[in-house]
Amino acid sequence: MPDEARPYHHGNLRAALLDAAERTIEKSGTERLSLRELARVVGVSHAAPRAHFTDRQALLVALAERGFDRLGAQLKAARDGAGPGFGERLRAVIAGFITFANSRPVLLDLMFSAKPYGDKARLPAAAEALAVVYDLIGDGVTEGALAPGDPERYGLLLYAWAQGLASLIAGGGLEPEVTDSLVSDAVSTFIRGNAAG
Amino acid sequence: MPDEARPYHHGNLRAALLDAAERTIEKSGTERLSLRELARVVGVSHAAPRAHFTDRQALLVALAERGFDRLGAQLKAARDGAGPGFGERLRAVIAGFITFANSRPVLLDLMFSAKPYGDKARLPAAAEALAVVYDLIGDGVTEGALAPGDPERYGLLLYAWAQGLASLIAGGGLEPEVTDSLVSDAVSTFIRGNAAG
DNA sequence: CCCTCATCTTGTCATTGCCAAGTTTCTTGA
DNA sequence: TCAAGAAACTTGGCAATGACAAGATGAGGG
C-alpha cells in the first residue's frame, strides 16, 4: 500500500514533526522554524501539530529532550568503549560530546538554551546525560586523578569548557583535526590543572 | 520644551531603538523582540525603524556590535586596572568578561550567536574585544608564565572556556558568588594546567 | 530660496501562532 | 457487537508581525 491516499490519522505525526523540525532547524536555524510550514512538509493541516504540541515552545522542548536522549546514549557509549583509565574515559566522553556538537550544532544550541543545569528536574533526559560526566568526574576524584573537591563543581567547569568548545566548533572555521587536538589539549589542561598533590 | 508635540523627525531614532531593544531583550528574551512594539515604545510609526535597520536581523547585529564595543572597553579597563603580573591581569580580564555576562546575559548570548570567531572580519568590534584576550595570552607566553606554545591556540582554549562559563551564567540558576569562584577556579586551572616547566 | 535627500508616515500583503468548532477514526467496555 | 467517548485531524478565523510601496515632512546644501 505505497500509494494510498493520506489516511485521516497520520499514525506517526509526533515523530514525523520532530524529524522534520530537526532537519529544518539544522538547515535554517531555530528562529525560522514555523509550525505551519512543518505541517505542510509533513502533509497535514496547519492545526494538526496542536494535537501533539500545545505550543511552538513545547515542540522545541520536545526537540531538546530527544536531543538529550541521544546525547546521553552517545556519551555512555563513548565512556564504555574507552580504556579503563580516568584520563582515557574522560577524553572519550568529551570527544563524544564534541562529535555530537559537530553533527547537530543547532540542536545542541537549542538544548543548552533550555538551561538543563541549575534546575535539573526540568528535563530528565538532560540530567541523565549530564550525570555521565558528573559520575565520571566523581570516579576521577576517588581514584585520585583529581584533587579532592566537589564533583559537581568540577563537572560545571568541565561542562562549561566543553560547551564553549562546541560553540566554537559549531561556529565553523576550524578544521576537524584542529578541533580534535584542541579538545585533547583542553582535557589535558583540565586534568593537569586539577591534579592531586 | 517638555510637552512638545512629537516632531516629525525623532532626531535620535537609531540609538533610541537600540536602547529600547536592549531593555526589551534583557527582560523578555531576544525572540520576543518585535520591531513594531519597539516603534510603539519609542513613539514612532511602525515602519520608522526601517529607515535605520533594513531588517530585524540588522537590528540584532547592530545590537551585538554595540555590545562588543562595550565589552572591549570593559576588558581593556579591567586589564589596565590590574596589577603587573600575568595571572592578575588574566584573572581581571576574565572577571570583567564574566561581569559583563552577569549584567547583560541575553545581550551576550546574542553576541555569541553572531559567531564572531572564525570569520573575524564579520564584526570588527568583536575582533577588537577578543584581541584583548589574545594579546594577554601572548604576554603570558613571552613572560614564561605559560609553557611555550601558539598564543592563538591558548586564546581559543581560554576563550571557549570563558564563553562556556558566560553561557552558564547567562542561562541563570547560579548565584553570583558561585560564578565568581567558578571563574576563579577556571583561571587557576588554566594557568596551572599550562604552566611552563 | 529652492531642491534634494534622509527621515518618517500611512496603507497593504502574506505569513504566523493560537484558538474554536466540526469531522473522522480508533478504542473501550458493556 | 456496537455504541459511546476519546483521540487525531480538518477547516475557519483572528490578531500580530515583518516587509514592502508610495507619499508626506523637514533639514541642509547649492
What would your notes on this structure say?
Two copies of one chain form a homodimer. Chain A has 197 residues and is mainly α. Chain A folds into two domains: 13-51, Arc Repressor Mutant, subunit A; 56-193, Tetracycline Repressor, domain 2 (Orthogonal Bundle). In chain A, 69% of the residues lie in helices and 0% in strands. Chain A is elongated and about 65 Å long. Chain A binds chain B through residues 31, 109, 112-113, 115, 117-119, 153, 156-157, 159-165, 167-168, 171-174, 182, 185-186, 188-194, and chain B through 31, 112-113, 115, 117-119, 153, 156-157, 159-165, 167-168, 171-174, 182, 185-186, 188-194. The structure holds a DNA duplex (30 and 30 nucleotides).
How many whole angstroms does the radius of gyration of chain A measure?
A: 20 Å
Fourth CATH level, the homologous superfamily of the largest domain in chain A: Tetracycline Repressor, domain 2
Please report the distance between the alpha carbons of the first and last residues of chain A.
Answer: 69 Å
Using the 3D structure, state the CATH architecture of the largest domain in chain A.
Orthogonal Bundle
Largest sheet report of chain A: none
What structural class do you assign from the helix and strand content of chain A?
mainly alpha
Fill in the CATH topology of the largest domain in chain A.
Tetracycline Repressor, domain 2
Number of strands of chain A: 0
Mean pLDDT of chain A: 90
Which spans of chain A of ≥5 residues are poorly predicted at pLDDT below 50? Answer: none
Number of domains of chain A: 2
Greatest contact pair?
A: A-B, 34 and 33 residues
Described by its quaternary structure, the protein is homodimer
Number of helices of chain A: 8
Helix content of chain A: 55-70%
User: Under the CATH scheme, which class of the largest domain in chain A?
Assistant: Mainly Alpha
Strand content of chain A: under 5%
The sequence of SSEs of chain A as H and E is HHHHHHHH
